[in-house]
Specification:
This protein has a single domain, classed as CDP-alcohol phosphotransferase transmembrane (TM) domain (Four Helix Bundle (Hemerythrin (Met), subunit A)). It is about 70% helix and about 0% strand. It contains 8 helices and 2 strands; from the N terminus they run βαααααβααα. Strands 1-2 form a two-stranded parallel ribbon. α1 crosses α3, α2 packs parallel to α4 and α5 runs parallel beside α7.
């Protein structure tokens, strides 16, 4: 909660300026909690639109629109609190991350229920993303730095990739070749996420090992009859058989 934020992904700086400009112009009746709720609605709407794309490719356009809604609510709630100097660090930290986990599961399940990506592959992607997120939260406690993205890819870039995929699928239309291509791309993305988190965990364990090397063996403490251990040893020695 008190960790220094380090945003290294591609759109971090322009997004930060845009969000701050929007937050300063929002009416007072818009609250951070309201934006968080809007983000949840956007995630549920995205998942539902993906699932409904079994009926028509037009639902892919709806999924893209709901991803924008989800970005607006999820990205702006914390910025609004900071602009208005109304931060609630522990409350916001907990709520933001539990909502992120729920939103990821909702969107991933919807993708798996669509006709384009195998459900198992989609859920593997959800699992990989949640492990990536858990690692970020643990890093903030272990190192005091909150690194939201991995390399140049963050949540906003991930949404843009999804929107681009939606456009490509909607324009190509349903076809026998589309499903294996989409599933293969999703599988490659999931594998890539697992590889990224494995590399980062290895680096973290190595860094923490240098910061906290294993303790060297120390000689046993001298036991005296005044210490509890010495008292017990003395009386064990003279206990009659």
């Amino acid at each position: 909660m008190a960790a220094r934020r380090e945003l290294t992904f591609l759109l971090a700086e322009p997004e930060r300026r845009l969000l701050r400009a929007i937050a300063t112009r929002l009416p007072r009746w818009v609250t951070s909690d309201g934006l968080t709720a809007l983000g949840v609605v956007g995630a549920l709407g995205t998942g539902a639109a993906y699932a409904l794309s079994t009926l028509s490719v037009a639902w892919l356009w709806a999924a893209s629109a709901m991803l924008v809604v989800q970005w607006f609510g999820d990205s702006l709630d914390g910025t609004l609190a900071r602009v208005r100097r109304a931060e609630r660090p522990r409350y916001g930290y907990y709520l933001d991350h539990i909502v992120d986990a729920f939103s990821t599961a909702a969107i991933g399940a919807g993708i798996g229920l669509s006709p384009y990506v195998n459900l198992g592959v989609a859920l593997a992607g959800v699992l990989a993303y949640l492990i990536l997120s858990i690692n970020v939260y643990l890093e903030s406690q272990a190192f005091g730095v909150f690194r939201l993205g991995y390399s140049r890819i963050g949540p906003t870039e991930a949404r843009i990739i999804l929107v681009a995929a939606n456009v490509a699928l909607a324009l190509s239309g349903p076809g026998a070749a589309v499903v294996p291509v989409a599933t293969g791309a999703a599988a490659a993305l999931a594998v890539g996420m697992f590889v990224m988190v494995a590399v980062r965990i290895g680096r973290n364990v190595s860094a923490l090992g240098r910061l906290e090397p294993p303790p060297t063996a120390s000689p046993p403490r001298h036991l005296t009859t005044t210490s509890p251990e010495g008292y017990l040893l003395k009386h064990e020695a003279v206990r009659p058989i």
